[in-house]
Specification:
Layout: E1 14-16, E2 28-33, E3 37-43, E4 55-56, E5 59-60, E6 67-69, E7 73-79, E8 82-87, H1 92-99, E9 105-109, E10 114-120, H2 124-129, E11 144-149, E12 152-161, E13 164-171, H3 175-186, E14 191-193
Parallel strand pairs: 2-14
Antiparallel strand pairs: 1-14, 2-10, 3-8, 3-9, 4-5, 6-7, 7-8, 10-13, 11-12, 12-13
Length: 194
């Protein structure tokens, strides 16, 4: 069975908004990230395992409000003893599930319940500020945070500072609303959907 994207009927490719007035470096790029495995790892309260010894896809579990990454996998800290793993290795959860002790950890597959929107460009922060109460100016590459965007619960992963690139995670059921909120906020600056 093939997964149908939550943005399948709304995400459009092309140029939108005030694009003619902007120079190339300020044009935003918006795309949906799909075909990823997403799972949550939670360490149980009674666990005696030290987090420093844990690795997923050769990556350490990051500390508070940070992420760790390699070319195929990103791990986001989303709460105390709670991490979100996103990978293009579609069999990663199966591999890691065999290595992770179910007495000390819970693993939950969230692949079909999340929408991921990637926003890239120098004006990314300005789009985020329109709907998110976080102090975006203090966040940089390698940071992550949970917040809301126009009332929709999100997790933001700061991928790169130059060019500025973030991934915004929301629940699949709110995917279309989140997408419309982000694209509406981007129209002022102009954006390319790809």
């Amino acid at each position: 069975m093939k997964l149908i994207s939550s943005l399948n009927s709304v995400h459009q490719k092309g140029k939108f908004g005030n694009i003619a007035l902007e120079d190339d470096k300020n044009i935003l790029k918006i795309r949906e990230i799909k075909d990823m495995v997403i799972f949550q790892i939670i360490k149980f309260k009674n666990s005696k395992i030290e987090i420093d010894q844990m690795e997923i896809d050769n990556l350490p579990l990051p500390n508070s409000l940070k992420s760790s990454s390699n070319s195929t996998t990103r791990i986001l800290w989303i709460g105390p003893n709670n991490w979100l793993v996103i990978s293009s290795k579609l069999d990663l959860m199966i591999i890691e599930n065999e290595k992770i002790d179910s007495i000390n950890f819970a693993i939950t597959d969230l692949s079909h319940s999340k929408t991921i929107i990637e926003l890239e460009g120098n004006l990314t922060d300005e789009v985020l500020k329109k709907g998110c109460p976080l102090n975006i100016n203090d966040l940089k590459k390698g940071d992550c945070a949970s917040s809301v965007y126009n009332g929709i619960a999100i997790t933001i992963d700061f991928i790169s500072d130059d060019p500025k690139k973030v991934r915004i995670f929301g629940l699949r059921s709110f995917g279309e609303s989140l997408y419309h909120s982000i694209t509406d906020a981007s129209l002022e600056y102009g954006f390319i959907g790809y």
